[in-house]
Amino acid sequence: MSIATSYFDDVIEKLTRVRNTQNEAIRQAAEICADTIAGDGLVFTFGTGHGGFAALEMFPRTGGVTGFRPIVESSIALMHHVLGDQGTAQYRFLHTREGYGNAILRSHQIKEGDALILFSHSGINAVILDMAVEFKERGLKVIAVTSVPHSSQVESRHSSGHRLYEIADVVIDTGIPLEDASQFIDGLEFPVGPTSTSIAVAVGHAINAATSAALVARGETPMIMVNTNSNRTQFAHQQNDRNYAELWRRLRSREFSAPEVK
Fold it and tell me: Where is the SIS domain (predicted)?
């Protein structure tokens, strides 16, 4: 068997496990998201490093519903620079510093009725936990897409002492083991073929789709992004522009509060 086949088999096995064990958690997450979107709020999504990929996939994305709002902090999301501006040294420093997550939330004008999805394989770093704690203190819902097997084996890097799965209202367990990479090659010390990103992105899309279904079940009509690379490009652009206008309406309706000065 080739290493590629072995890798694909492993991803399929992990997706099958999520399908068989996390359906109820995904349903609960979708109900929270539907409550937020139907209530004129926003479902913010966030992750650091590779967790940010899943957060970005939530909107705007073909088949996605308007109402999800990714938060992207370039300094802790873009890892490809490695050296120089926004390099690995800055990433390692920033995502472990408490207070940074709170500053990010202040800039996004969080309001009553919003919800938050945090994508974090380990669920232990300060920025992620800052956000989870603040949302909980405001009485807002937090959804975690995280690996309980990984997180339960490592210590929190936050003063709360908690890991993400211990704080969130709904936990969707990706089940990814501590190593993340899943393929071992004879003669090579370290495993290859990471799986956490593939599973997290799939879970995000499942939440998105289930949210649309929950809205329809309530008699609501979710505003869906349409693929523009098709034979109805003009229609798709018009539809998507309506979606963007709806997002802007939700953002514009927020009362601006300047970030606090210390």
Answer: 33-220
